[in-house]
Specification:
The chain is mostly helical. It has 14 helices and three strands.
Amino acid sequence: MRPDPSEQYESSEVPGPPVPGDGLWSIGELAERAGVTVKTVRFYSDRGLLPEAARSAGGHRRYGPDALGRLRTIRSLRTLDLPVADVGRVLDREDALEDVIAGQLRELGSQLAALRWREAALQLLRDCAPEERAERLRLIGGVSAPPDTAALARFWRRWLPARLPARLTSEILDHSVPQPPADPTPEQVLAFTRLHAFVSGPCPGTGTAQWQPAAHRPEEGYRPAVLYAGLIEAYELAAADVRAGRSPYGGEALDCFVAAYARSRGTRDTPAFRRVLGGQLDADPRVDRYWQLTAELNGPSEPTPGALHDWLRAALDAGDARPAA
């Protein structure tokens, strides 16, 4: 807990003697009843958190009995490490406590996430071979603690085709950008830092077109929004088969997958189209590496969109040239 500034507060004011019969307490009496120092009472008074009821003839502060409960409330809030400004908000507005608590919990959650990330990163450095430490230290130093995913999102915005609706782009990013685990293992720290370094590296070639796979750069009339909306549906259909470890086969998921490409180009799903499409969907080393690292980060429980795409591409390459009925 951060030091309470009230304990370091100094003032030249000397506590005055009690004034009998007025029902008020001197600063010393209030401090004694609350079990705190005179400096603490003076500190909160000077910051407006503990208003005085009056001043004695000698100019000394006088407090009413309600000041004791207010002072105890202040001390309780400070024990929770609430800043003085937030304590003032709670005292001034009855409904402020909930907002202050919510804000403190968010801040504490971020601090805990940073500590868990740092712990796993230190374990990663401790347990690796000496010759690996320089590279791993460089990877760890390339991200914040806890890390953010802005670089990953930028990677996808460059790779995705232009002119996608904002809603669809957001949905794709939700599926494609992995979130750092709240309580990472050292292996997950390594996977995320490698992924971050990979997407932060120099772009291959020049210009946005160099980022686009062949399937994103067809003739005029291409409708990318139709393609990606259809791919999301096809991935959802294939997910159960991939989770179950089934071999790729022709079926509803593959038909939906091919239809997405056909509709986006204003053509039909035919055996000839499937043969051409199979040649265009060759592996893209950049995206394949991205999905490999994402799988290491997320674990095997949930297939990545890259794994679903590879399964559907393998089903297409298996020779199922029959278009959907």
